[in-house]
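Researcher: Please generate the 3D structure of the following complex. Treat every line as part of one assembly.
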Amino acid sequence: MKKLPVLKRLSNRKGSYSKRFRRSKAGNFFYFVFLILLGLFSVLPLIYAVLTSFKPLEELLVFPPRFFVMRPTVMNYTALPDLLSDLTIPFSRYVFNSIFVSVATTAFYIIISAMAAFVLAKGKWKGKNVYFWVVQFALMFNGTTLGIPCYLIYAKLHMIDTYWMYILPQLATTMGVFLMKQYIEGSVPDALLEAAKIDGAGYWRIFWHIVMPVVKPAWLTLMLFGFRDAWSNVPTTTILSEKLKTLPMITSQIVAGGTARAGNAAAITVIMMIPPILVYLISQSNVVEAMTSAGIKE
Amino acid sequence: MQKLSRKKNKQSSALRKNMPMYFMLAPFTVFFVLFTIIPILSSIALSFTSYDLLNTPSFVGLDNFKRMFLGDEVFGIVVKNTFVFAVIAGPIGFLLSFVLAWFVNEFSPKVRALLSFMFYAPSLVGNAYFIWKVLFSGDSYGYLNSMLLSLGVITEPILWLKTPEYIMPILIIVQLWQSMGVSFLANISGLQNISGDLYEAGTIDGVRNRWQELRYITLPCMSHMLLFSAVMQIQSAFSVSVIAIELAGFPSTQYAADTIVTHMTDTATVRFEYGYASAITLVLFLMMFATRLIVGKIMSMAGK
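Model: Done. Output below.
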């Protein structure tokens, strides 16, 4: 496929940052200390979960309670296979289910949201504004009361107890469209699209080769949110067969074991956090990479 | 006649030209209508009925709304709580998520990644509010109590989550802590896409310092992302419920931590008054919607 001339111009869009006003060294240091302190407060529960997962039982019950672990043990982790051994179907199946539905949901979520957002942000058609307002309304309309009609619709569509149950409802989430639409409006200039049109690109090519690369930071961010939600999604009322269940559904059964299993529960919490953290690292390192590579081209 | 057919031709060619556009909008629209719009419409319809899940809904006109504003004592309390919550947590969350993103964005990529991760962490761990339960636990096992006890600040443990004066501030802090991630990262991604050329052009046009840069370049460029994070904050501040239930229990002492959503959840899932719960959902939505309009007005005024 021949490269659109406009893409070359695109890579020049991000200029150097040298002309910007910078904080002084001292100011930078001050901000850093301030932000680290706030950040530590923010990340405290995560640290706590990690520390707790290495605490032996007697330290979990110690008085007065201690934040830090005195004699760390990996018992909480090594006991997990035992706890999981009396499952009726192999553990690997849950792992597969979790990864499969999370990856599929996230991929569809990004593409479908981005396509709709592109049309809402840059298309010229009647009813565009009305559509966008409806999206915003829907974002603000949430309640337990939606559960019953939703369930009836799932049942009508024969989605109950299938993989679709994990994937399709999340695709109707309006947050993704809203985020992408705002981002495309804010960072894709009309002139760029016009130029691409003159170069002979159609809607699809404009979407895939111009809009998506420009808004990469936005969909990488959406990837985080989408994956996190899909990963922790627990549709207890609509997924019934054991072979379709995901990790959070099976682990909640272990966590239900009370104080005696508080350590195991913490270990599971920590393990379950790893995939979303990996996705975060992939996403954010790509955002940075997109930035620096654009700078090098110049 | 000729004119008309030409017009028709023009219309159909416009339709053909826009075909790919409608194709791109279609997948989202299908799911959106099926799983969001139809349930919302049925919920609105149910709000004019009496419905207990067993018998068919019966139309009761505006009875649910009359009951809400005239007969339901708890409703007044939860509306007040929700408003206190939204008025404090909403704007603070909005400003904080932008200010933090602005601060963080100017560090080198590595430091930025570290700090971003720290602020995003709470939304990574879905059920991490359990630490706040341990921290504020009412017996002397709670971290805060045991610390204050050993320091001699207090002589007996304080029931943090059972004392009306303390519940609200604690909930606001926890809510801010948890809802920060989404707006913060959206703002970070927005800041990263502001073209460097703009800043350069700014210096030529007479931008003298970082504040002017913020005022004349950064904020205008960020207006779209700011609207997004404002709407997300409205949504999360008005519909706080899980945190309230987990930390303060349900119902909380003197309803001090009950919100419209906890009241609605209680009505629907404990008392099975679905019609009434739907009416509460509708009223909550109207409140959020009014707030959204006001915020939109304020933001467009500030933009000028």
